[in-house]
Design brief:
By secondary structure, the chain is α+β, with helices and mostly antiparallel strands. The protein is built from four helices and seven strands; from the N terminus they run H-E-E-E-H-E-E-H-E-E-H. It has a single domain, classed as Roll (PH-domain like), CATH 2.30.29. It has a seven-stranded antiparallel beta sheet, covered by helices on one side. The longest helix is centred in the N-terminal third of the chain and has 15 residues. It is globular, with a radius of gyration of 17 Å.
């Protein structure tokens, strides 16, 4: 993707969201979505009032290899949209014990807790970069 294509992508994303994109990072959701059977890869981003996770259409690799033998539809994109006013906290979860430090992934896990009606829900996810920037931005946005 060229710089121009990337810039246009984020302009389109901001237009769709109705606000400029503040912080973004690629990553995967590990827990917190209904019917999530395996990590889901996508784009995390924030605007002034929202926290988003968005996937993109993709084909199953096996279906691509098999071509027309089996017609399987592309996965539909998913968008999770959480108002920052509902977010209670965001934090980078660090391994606590010696063994956790040795046997866990070096990619940090982030937890975002948010109110959903009368209950509290959470998303656990990893991003490839900018974890501190994303968490700090969310926490600053929710505390004013």
């Amino acid at each position: 993707m060229s710089d121009e294509e990337r810039d246009q992508f984020f302009k389109d994303l901001a237009q769709e969201a109705g606000e400029p994109v503040e912080v973004y990072a690629l990553g995967e959701i590990r827990e917190g979505l209904e019917n999530l059977r395996e990590p889901l890869v996508g784009l995390f981003y924030t605007t002034e009032h929202w926290f988003f996770f968005q996937t993109f259409p993709r084909k199953n690799w096996f279906t691509s290899v098999m071509g027309s033998f089996r017609k399987k539809k592309e996965e539909k994109p998913l968008q999770v949209k959480i108002p920052l006013s509902a977010v209670r906290s965001a934090q980078v979860v660090k391994p606590k014990s010696f063994w956790q430090k040795i046997f866990t992934s070096p990619i940090p896990v982030i937890t975002v807790e948010y109110s959903e009606g009368t209950s509290v829900s959470s998303l656990k996810f990893s991003i490839l970069a900018k974890e501190k920037e994303l968490v700090d931005w969310i926490n600053t946005a929710i505390t004013g």
